[in-house]
Amino acid sequence: MIQVTNQNFKNIPALHVVRQDLHGEKLPTVFFYHGFQSEKELYLHYGYFLAEQGFRVILPDAKFHGERKRDTTSAEQAVYFWDTVQANIDELAGLRDELVRAGLSDAERIGVGGVSMGAITSLGILARYDWVKVAVSLMGSAYYGEFANELVEQATAHGMEFPFDTAKRIKELEPYDLSEQLEKVNGRALLLWHGKKDDVVPFKYSEKLYDRLLEEEQAEQVEFVVDDQAKHKVSIDGINRTTDFFQKNAYKRCW
């Protein structure tokens, strides 16, 4: 039986998903992040499938989303998109430490994954933390600076105004930009899944990342899965590949 509880870790609301018979054991743990203007509950199926395979899964609500949305407007969510991504990344260390201290998570077997904004988060996490051993990006971009500039151009073309210096803010993302420090992949297991017809997070970003990882001989543990027909939605095959990827790498040397 799969047990799902809504808990706070470091004052961050999250769904905690685990097989009931494994609840108190030290387990490999996956932190899975939801997409833009969404919430943790809508990604529970990822937690369920992974928990069936023996993982402990934590699905946090992102800043300005879900239980943390409060009176944040949709426009504010868009303006502060990168604040949300950065908060996800910065908050991970505290979540992980709390679970490790409680004896529930194996510090040597921590994985991350996510969809869209959550995938962007996961790629930034690889740039920030060397103790994350496995990552899954479903429709993400590791090119923080390039994608942020693209989003700003699109937003301003539609009349959106930013209450801060966008160039300065984008500059502040550099420590989280995996595309500028590919050596940090460092042989870790990474799954990139992307639909060629994605009209939200362009496919080109995953393709370019994979090509560069190949060029720099960092792709030994990297898998790139292309869905020729998918737009900005993960297929059933993509969901299954996510579960299979974590399971396949759960007890490998890379963990």
From TrEMBL:
<dbReference type="InterPro" id="IPR001375">
    <property type="entry name" value="Peptidase_S9_cat"/>
</dbReference>
<dbReference type="Pfam" id="PF00326">
    <property type="entry name" value="Peptidase_S9"/>
</dbReference>
<dbReference type="InterPro" id="IPR050261">
    <property type="entry name" value="FrsA_esterase"/>
</dbReference>
<protein>
    <recommendedName>
        <fullName>Peptidase S9 prolyl oligopeptidase catalytic domain-containing protein</fullName>
    </recommendedName>
</protein>
<dbReference type="InterPro" id="IPR029058">
    <property type="entry name" value="AB_hydrolase_fold"/>
</dbReference>
<feature type="domain" description="Peptidase S9 prolyl oligopeptidase catalytic">
    <location>
        <begin position="48"/>
        <end position="249"/>
    </location>
</feature>
<keyword id="KW-0378">Hydrolase</keyword>
